[in-house]
Design brief:
Length: 423
């Protein structure tokens, strides 16, 4: 970088650049310089300040003093060096101010958008120490993107300055636009991400401003769902799903008979099914535990029916009938559609809950948990229980016989084959 005595005569001789910028350093005052561009000449100062967060132990900082023409070289140098005022007091200049600059805090430039990405790349689930599933990542990200677009570019120190009235106002906006549960979910998710930021970058954001919503009655309470099929609901459910196309109808039945999560049932692939062994093996489920369970007479019939009708040899057991509307490739079970067809106030997850409830009413507690892939965290469950697929066949058949009886014959009918396998 060229050095020059930054006097008026010398500065006037320096030509403007054709492109880019050139810095000229003063020969008499260290750190004082002139930046020449295509149409401007600007005085600035530069200094190295200590910063333990950098590998070299310091960082370079600059500060603009003003443009040549608006300031003379003497005025600019005085602002850089400092001067004695009329009362005889020393007024520090820009160079001294730079050297007193506080070290940059880690996280000062990290935005909410960036910490959201870090949260899912670095944080692990408490239950098993594994990364979050991609669907969870997508759900979190989509909700935060949708409800907080103007906050995402803000740096953590700016987020830390949020006052309770700012947080409450945004909560009420989302509540008015999308409902109380959407507002609660959005802020619970955002709070979790920012809580992670307080751990990773405590110097930039030490307190989570979204905690102000907790414990003050502002957020709607989430009621635990408990709906499932009872009594005459079984027949109403069975009659109602006949209005779906055969593939979707069979998917609802399969979900109920196997007690599966809706996404596991609708997204079931043929590679997970062994018709000869009469069992299912899904390697990656919601709780990261392999689902390995038998098939009952009822679900085997459903799979054989789907196999026979699968003329296109799809990878999906329950392929979508409207590929132009459904990008997943498989059918979808939608709670609103289920309620409309059956007239019952239930969700799709109520079918899994119904399977579990039926199994428990039949006193098949442990086997019902294993059939629905619930983790037994006891010492015996984790280290000693070697129950296999074949050990669960009888219990599954007993449960499905009861479900079938309730759907086809009604509540008052005689129990079918509770002790046999039904095969």
């Amino acid at each position: 970088m060229p050095k020059r005595a930054l006097t008026k005569r010398n500065i006037d001789k320096i030509p403007f650049t054709e492109k880019g910028q050139v810095d000229y350093w003063d020969t008499s005052l260290k750190g004082f310089a002139l930046r020449v561009g295509q149409s401007t000449k600007t005085f600035f100062v530069q200094a190295d300040v200590k910063d333990s967060t950098r590998k070299k132990g310091y960082r370079t900082v600059k500060r603009i003093i003003g443009r040549y023409g608006e300031l003379t070289p003497e005025q600019a140098r005085e602002r850089a060096r400092g001067h004695i005022d009329e009362e005889g007091k020393h007024v520090p200049g820009a160079l001294l101010a730079l050297k007193q600059t506080e070290p940059e805090k880690p996280g000062n430039t990290v935005t909410l958008q960036e910490i959201l990405g870090m949260y899912f790349r670095e944080k692990r689930r408490k239950s098993d120490g594994l990364p979050h599933k991609q669907k969870t990542v997508d759900d979190y990200t989509n909700i935060i993107d949708r409800h907080f677009p103007s906050w995402l570019p803000l740096a953590l120190p700016e987020i830390a300055k949020f006052t309770p009235d700012i947080v409450i106002e945004r909560y009420k906006q989302i509540e008015a636009d999308s409902g109380p549960y959407a507002a609660r979910n959005a802020f619970v998710m955002l709070s979790a991400v920012v809580a992670y930021a307080t751990v990773k970058y405590p110097a930039s954001i030490s307190l989570n401003p979204f905690k102000t919503l907790r414990g003050n009655g502002l957020m709607a309470k989430v009621k635990e769902r408990d709906e499932c099929l009872h009594g005459a609901d079984f027949k109403a459910f069975y009659d109602g799903i006949q209005g779906f196309n055969p593939v979707t109808r069979d998917c609802y039945l399969f979900c109920l008979y196997q007690g599966m999560r809706s996404t596991e049932a609708s997204g079931l692939r043929w590679e997970h099914v062994d018709l000869e062994k009469k069992e299912i093996r899904i390697p990656d489920t919601k709780n990261r535990q392999t689902l390995n369970v038998p098939l009952s007479r009822q679900t085997l019939e459903i799979l054989e029916r789907r196999k026979a009708a699968d003329l296109e040899e799809s990878n999906w057991v329950f392929p979508s009938q409207r590929k132009d509307l459904n990008k997943t490739g498989h059918t979808r079970m939608v709670s609103a559609d289920l309620r409309a067809r059956t007239g019952l106030p239930i969700t799709v997850h109520a079918l899994r809950r119904t399977f579990i409830t039926t199994g428990r009413k039949l006193k098949l507690f442990e086997d019902t948990d294993k059939l629905t892939n619930h983790i037994d965290s006891t010492v015996s469950g984790r280290h000693y229980d070697q129950t296999g697929v074949d050990d669960l066949r009888r219990s599954l058949q007993i449960i499905d016989n009861e479900i079938e009886r309730l759907m086809l014959e009604g509540v008052g009918a005689k129990v079918i084959n509770l002790t046999g396998t039904g095969e």
